[in-house]
Amino acid sequence: MAAQTTADANLQNAIQVYYDRMLLTRLEKTLRLDQFGAKKKLPKNAGNEIKWHRFKNIAAQTTALTEGITPNAVSLESQQVTAVPVQYGAFVELSDLLEDESLDPMVENAIDVLSYLAALSLDTIIRNSLHGNLTDQFVNSRADADAITQSDVVNAEEIRKAVTGLKDKDVRPFSDGNFQAVVHPKVSFDIMSDTTANGWIEMNKYITAEKAMKGEVGKMYQCRVMESSNIEVAANTSTINVYRNFIFGMEAYGLVELSGQNLKTFRKQRGSSGTADPLDQRSTVGYKFSHVTKVLDADRAIEMYAASDYDA
């Protein structure tokens, strides 16, 4: 009986599943912003448009009923937000000598590098889609990002202001009863430094047992705080680093849910390219996914612009 090789169909399928799992594992460990969007799956053969539906509230009815008279019916009104996912991807090309002579397993290393690239790309796509499309909050009520000074850092008062602003617009917290913040580590440094009584609570001091979220470091005034070094930072006209952090309520934005259908790895063996690789000198490893991020309601999230004492 001939020995099996990695070219056998059954083994190729098993290897493909292994690579897909490697990629997904790294994505789950790296991302922050994918935790808070209203997710929609992309079904196969169901077109390319994603839709989110939401019914509008009806105004309070304050007119008393008249005895024996049927009042007018109230009308339901819905909102629909649509978006079209697009594809993203990348690949690396490996030579036959590199694969055959390298001391390290090149395919596994390539998948590892591509996993981080996919995660970083997806998180950045989400972040860039949110920028400029949410409710702005400039620390210390500054006029804009260029007006931010080095002393304009996030503290307990700014967190309370953000949470109160969301509540004032009847924005619902998440199912755990909290709003969710994603901030730069330098900004969490400032939040942790605030000594306001009954303010900052470290995660290991929570009164109730709550499952830790990815990147979570603690909470303050009904707002759980996650760190992400992929929060955008840019110097303003005064050369002050300004960090653009997020605080989310429920259903502020929507995104395509990553699954086996729209996140795939691709391994092309040497010899699979036909005349494009006549001497079987090259193989490739890559990934591809479909995605779109769509802000569903700008009132349900805050983009908080601030400096950091860490930079002082």
Fold topology:
Elements (H helix, E strand, L loop, with lengths): L8 H22 L7 E3 L9 E6 L22 E6 L2 E10 H6 L4 H25 L4 E4 L17 H13 L10 E5 L1 H9 L7 E2 L13 E4 L3 E5 L5 E3 L5 E8 L4 E4 L6 E6 L13 E10 L1 E3 L5 E6 L6
Parallel strand pairs: 1-12, 5-16, 6-9
Antiparallel strand pairs: 2-3, 4-14, 6-11, 7-8, 8-9, 10-11, 11-16, 12-15, 13-14
Helix pairs in contact: 1-3
How far apart lie the N and C ends?
71 Å
Instruction: Name the beta content range.
Output: 25-35%
Radius of gyration in whole Å, from Cα? Answer: 25 Å
Poorly predicted ranges (pLDDT <50, ≥5 residues)?
A: 1-11
What can be said about the biggest beta sheet? Answer: 8 strands, mixed
Tally of separate domains: 2
Order of helices and strands: HEEEEHHEHEHEEEEEEEEEE
- Multimer state: single chain
Can you count the helices?
5
Number of strands: 16
Mean pLDDT, to the nearest integer, reads 85
Please bin the fraction of helical residues.
10-25%
- Could you say which structural class the secondary elements and strand pairing correspond to? alpha+beta
The outline comes out as globular
Could you give a quick summary of the protein structure above?
The chain is 24% helix and 27% strand. The chain is built from five helices and 16 strands.
